[in-house]
Amino acid sequence: TTEIPDDDELCGRGLPTTPFDRTALTTIGPYSYDPAAWKPWTHRPYCIEANEEPWCVYTNAASPKGHGISIVTTPEVAGSTLNILEHPFDQKFFAPDKLYLPRPYKVVDIPGKGQGVIATQKIEKGKAILVDHASILAAAEYPSDVMREEVQDLLATAVNRLGEPEKVLGLSKKGRGEGATDAEDLLLTNSFTVGIQGKEFIALFADLSRFNHDCKPNAFIYFSETTLAMTVWASRDIEPGEEISITYTTAGLPSKERKQALENVWGFKCQCSLCTASPEVIKKSDDNRAKIKAYQASIPKLAEEGNFDGALKQAEHMFELVEEEGLADQMSDMYEYPARLYYQVGNLDKALEYTLKVKREIDGFGVPGKFGQEKLQAMDGIIRRLEKEIAMKKEREEQFKKQAKMKGKSGRAMRQVLEGARP
Ligand SMILES: C[S@@+](CC[C@H](N)C(=O)[O-])C[C@H]1O[C@@H](n2cnc3c(N)ncnc32)[C@H](O)[C@@H]1O
Questions:
Q1: Which of 78, 176, 390, 412 has its CA 20 to 30 A from that of 299?
Q2: CATH architecture of the domain formed by 279-382
Q3: Predicted complex: ipTM over 0.95
Q4: Spacing, Cα 284 to ligand 1 middle (Å)
Q5: Pocket test for ligand 1, best of 212, 245, 246 (most atoms within 8 A of CB)
Q6: How far does residue 415's CA lie from ligand 1's centre (Å)?
Q7: Domain(s) of CATH 2.170.270.10: residues in the chain
Q8: What is the mean pLDDT of each run of 10 residues along the chain (423 residues)?
Q9: What's the pLDDT at 92?
Q10: Residues in the ligand 1 pocket, defined by CB under 6 Å
Q11: Measured in angstroms, how far is the CA atom of residue 372 from the centroid of ligand 1?
Q12: Where are the annotated segments for Disordered (predicted)?
């Protein structure tokens, strides 16, 4: 039966989450008044019509972790590509031994930056500081026939239907965007862009939103398409009292480009330690970053030309600079260059050393997801092969030494015989 509830805002709130039946969305889906058809959503999907297809808000007000999640997308995307629909909402964190509980930080006022996050204990490199499930995921783009007021309506509904709307409404808002509504301003000030199955979404994470940006951050974020959670990882040891920061831009940009990105996309002037450092320090860092970029282009070129020694020299220098700029965790992929190059020149020990570095960076931070897993498996395969080749090489060398010793012995024996034979 499809009885129309008195208040469809509240109807179904708190329903236990059950495995999702995708036919419900694609057949009766958003238009049904039967709460059974909304599962795992706790509200009747709220939709606006558009030429091609409707755009809707899907909310589960209680999960994950009690604060709720609203997703703004089309029924087709919701029904066919959003991974979340195939996974239990409250999926456990994949590496609980790596996660600090309770949280190892507190939120305080930070001069020049509003609020921010300060470590309350020593935090070790490679450990997780926070796992934060998205509160809102909204499509980054809409067709031209969808009016701005309609998107504003969808976003406002997405916020208001959350289990604790006040938790996100209390986040900082910078008065961004001309004629922006509260929900738009909230998203413009606080959200991150994430990819889910090749589609771009703007994502709001209530707790992550308190972490400020730094151009030389001590932590980094990783988004899981499977759990729709963002994890904050410590990229170096962090002392109690230190601010915990992440980067809002692509890692490794020089000062002019990152200032532009922060002002255009995020709408603020960066006050981080690097941006407020002396002109000499900023110049040195810019030079380092420019060199890293140039090396990224020249190393593969040199290798292609067969100049392995030249390529390796540059790769070694590039890593010194990467470490100096505090970018190692963001650029672990680049350790693959020297690994390959050392293999080409037959230095298997060095090739293994760099392959282990790549593995340590991926594994150390426990980056989950399909890509991370595949990469780890590939690394394991390469490591096994290198170890085998090194063992075989050692064996050959041992045999060679033995043979040389034998030759030496027989040589001596011959000499002794000859010497002994002398009168
Ligand atoms: C996602 S919020 C971060 C938390 C925010 N500071 C708060 O009070 O809730 C982003 C906003 O924080 C401020 N912010 C973050 N990083 C900053 C930085 N490096 N320099 C200056 N302001 C920063 C900016 O006002 C920006 O719009």
A1: 390
A2: Alpha Horseshoe (1.25)
A3: yes
A4: 25
A5: 212
A6: 83
A7: 22-246
A8: 32 32 42 70 87 90 78 84 51 72 96 96 92 93 94 95 90 83 92 89 96 93 82 92 94 92 92 95 96 91 89 89 81 77 88 82 56 70 89 91 78 57 45
A9: 58
A10: 112-116, 171-172, 174, 189-190, 209-210, 212-214, 266, 268, 270-272
A11: 30
A12: 400-423
| Burial classification of residue 51, based on how many CB atoms lie within 10 Å of its CB (0-12 exposed, 13-18 middle, 19 or more buried) | exposed
| Mode of pairing for the β-strands spanning 46-48 and 55-60 | antiparallel
**For residue 126, what pLDDT is reported?**
81
C-alpha of residue 119 to centroid of ligand 1, in Å:
17
Note every long-range contact of 175-178, with CB atoms under 8 Å and residues 24 or more positions apart, other chains counting: 176/267
pLDDT value of residue 41? 80
* Ranges of CATH 1.25.40.10 domains, the chain: 279-382
Q: How far is the CA of 59 from the centre of ligand 1 (A)?
A: 28
Per CATH, is 22-246 categorized as 2.170.270.10? yes
| Burial of 415 from C-beta contacts in 10 A (0-12 / 13-18 / 19+) | exposed
Within 8 A by CB and 6+ apart from 389, the residues are 348
Rounded Cα–Cα distance for residues 68 and 59 (Å): 7
Test site for ligand 1: of 115, 172, 185, most ligand atoms within 8 A of the Cβ: 172
Task: Measure 271 CA to ligand 1 centroid, in angstroms.
Answer: 9
Give the amino acid at 61.
Answer: A
Nearest CA to ligand 1 atom 13: 113
C-alpha–C-alpha distance, residues 19 and 90, integer Å: 12
- How far, in Å, is the centroid of ligand 1 from the Cα of 268? 8
**Tokens linked to 348:** 């298997």
Q: Which of 132, 169, 189, 213 to mutate to test the pocket of ligand 1 (most atoms within 8 A of CB)?
A: 213
Q: Taking the C-alpha atoms of 399, 404, 410 and 413 in order, what is their torsion angle to the nearest 10 degrees?
A: -130
